[in-house]
Amino acid sequence: MQKQVEYPEAIRTKYPEQVVIAIAKDKDGKANPITLGWTMIVSGSPPMMAIAVAKKHYSVEAITHSKCFTIAFPSSDMADAALFFGSRSGRKVDKFAEFDCATEPAKAIDSVLLADAVANFECELESQAPAGDHIIFTGRIVASHTSAEPKKRLYTIGPGHKLGPAS
Ligand SMILES: Cc1cc2nc3c(=O)[nH]c(=O)nc-3n(C[C@H](O)[C@H](O)[C@H](O)COP(=O)(O)O)c2cc1C
Questions:
Q1: Beta bridge mates, 21
Q2: Is the distance from the beta carbon of residue 52 to the nearest atom of ligand 1 less than 6 Å?
Q3: Nearest CA to ligand 1 atom 15
């Protein structure tokens, strides 16, 4: 049996929510990482993933400019990086210069990979669609990478950006 409640109360049941870090280069060639929870796989063949980015975020300019982006699955020990990249704007700071996070060049697109992530996906921008206060960017995956060592993914496990492994 269901009880009708307001949206904010119902959506508080969503945890754990996966965390990804998307990276796109801006017009000056600066790689800008953004932490995102609103993301999903949207096609299997060809493989595609989508991310929802708030219209006000600098990442919108970077992705629109470069027309490609990386989606990284951060590991459970990358919570500090995810919080840093998810609380500073690339409009004001060079996040990779200010936070020590190892990167590697992407192979098929002009972006970077997160060296310590569980996995990285190189995406070419397929489409973008407005969705309320966000823009949904869909990327076609043109190269994929996984960590050489086994790692656990990072999730938001509770309100207030409480991050950790899912279990
Ligand atoms: C755990 C976590 C999840 C987030 N999820 C999203 C999201 O799905 N979409 C979004 O637009 N911002 C999300 N944010 C906020 C952005 O990461 C944050 O505002 C960031 O500083 C924007 O960077 P930019 O201006 O360089 O693009 C999230 C932040 C955190 C910490």
A1: 35, 72
A2: yes
A3: 86
Question: Which residue's C-alpha comes closest to atom 10 of ligand 1?
Answer: 53
Can you give the pLDDT at residue 167?
75
Q: How far apart, in whole angstroms, are the C-alpha atoms of residue 90 and residue 18?
A: 22
Tens digits of per-residue pLDDT, 37-81? Answer: 999 999 999 999 999 999 999 999 999 999 999 999 999 999 999
> 17-155 in CATH: which number?
2.30.110.10
Output the CA 105–ligand 1 centroid distance in Å.
23
Q: How far is CA 84 from CA 35, 97, 138, in A?
A: 9, 12, 24
Cis peptide before 16 (omega within 30 of 0): yes
Q: What is the pLDDT of residues 153-162, one digit of tens each?
A: 999 999 999 9
Q: Quick one: which atom of ligand 1 is closest to the CA of 52?
A: 9
User: How would you classify the pairing of strands 112-114 and 103-105?
Assistant: antiparallel
| Predicted pLDDT of residue 151 | 97
Calculate mean pLDDT across residues 124-130: 98
Ligand 1 close to Cβ of residue 69 (< 6 A)? no
